[in-house]
């Protein structure tokens, strides 16, 4: 049964939900894993061809040095052959994975931080407008108390209004940390989204590195280090 096509979000979509990006990340991870398995099978075929050549020369009485040289030559020829034969299929998958990663550029910006996300809560709504009118000019003690209430009641719209108000105040005069309030209200959701976005990008990059190593016939230590640094829990 053929694997369903990778559903890439439209580039002009302003923002995706956490569920949508998590779903995309899971799909991309499966696609990247399958790509790695395909490449491993191709490499196994190259190694098998080299082993067959060495074994044939051994039976014919050639020296180990000659066997090794012939095996290297056979491996190089086999690699060229399977690289050319599989090029279209491999690059089709890589383009899909890269497009999936690119499609999240806008979403990534909109989920850059908890404050960025909280700032959109209830934007333009009567509820937020009312909060702004009621709290504008409020004393620091009142603003601090309302921030504690917003956190305790998980009221994101109230939190957004408070962050908007204190953002206009001199830094030293702000009665509470906008970053801390935003992290309390939406931090978990933001981190989940950022992890999912990173998972899509890392999966695409792993596939690119795997393909590059296959075509070169050798592992790239530098690329492996970069992957490990970008995704320490996976490498």
Structure description:
By secondary structure, the protein is mainly α. 75% of the residues lie in helices and 0% in strands. It contains nine helices and no strands. It has helices at 18-59, 64-102, 105-110, 114-118, 126-135, 140-153, 156-167, 178-216, 221-230. Helix 2 (64-102) packs antiparallel against helix 8 (178-216), helix 7 crosses helix 8 and helix 8 (178-216) packs antiparallel against helix 9 (221-230). The longest helix has 42 residues, at 18-59. It is rod-shaped, with a radius of gyration of 27 Å. 26% of the residues are buried. The model has no long low-confidence stretch (mean pLDDT 89).
Over the alpha carbons, how many angstroms does the gyration radius reach?
Answer: 27 Å
Instruction: Give the biggest beta sheet.
Output: none
Instruction: Please write the string of helix (H) and strand (E) elements.
Output: HHHHHHHHH
**How many strand units?**
0
């Amino acid at each position: 049964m053929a694997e369903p096509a990778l559903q890439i979000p439209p580039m002009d979509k302003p923002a995706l939900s956490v569920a949508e990006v998590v779903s995309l990340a899971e799909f991309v991870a499966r696609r990247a894993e399958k790509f790695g398995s395909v490449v491993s099978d191709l490499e196994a075929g190259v190694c098998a061809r080299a082993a067959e050549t060495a074994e044939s020369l051994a039976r014919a009485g050639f020296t180990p040095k000659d066997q090794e040289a012939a095996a290297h030559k056979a491996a190089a020829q086999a690699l060229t052959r399977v690289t050319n034969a599989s090029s279209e299929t491999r690059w089709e998958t890589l383009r899909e994975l890269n497009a999936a990663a690119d499609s999240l550029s806008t979403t990534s910006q909109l989920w850059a931080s908890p404050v960025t996300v909280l700032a959109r809560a209830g934007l333009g709504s009567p509820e937020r407008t009312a909060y702004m009118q009621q709290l504008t000019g409020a004393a620091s003690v009142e603003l601090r108390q309302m921030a504690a209430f917003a956190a305790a009641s998980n009221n994101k719209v109230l939190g957004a209004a408070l962050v908007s108000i204190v953002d206009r105040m001199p830094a030293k005069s702000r009665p509470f940390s906008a970053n801390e309030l935003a992290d309390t209200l939406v931090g978990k959701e933001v981190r989940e989204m950022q992890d999912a976005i990173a998972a899509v990008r890392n999966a695409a990059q792993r596939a690119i590195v795997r393909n590059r190593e296959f075509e070169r016939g050798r592992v790239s230590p530098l690329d492996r280090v970069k992957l490990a640094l970008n995704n320490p829990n996976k490498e």
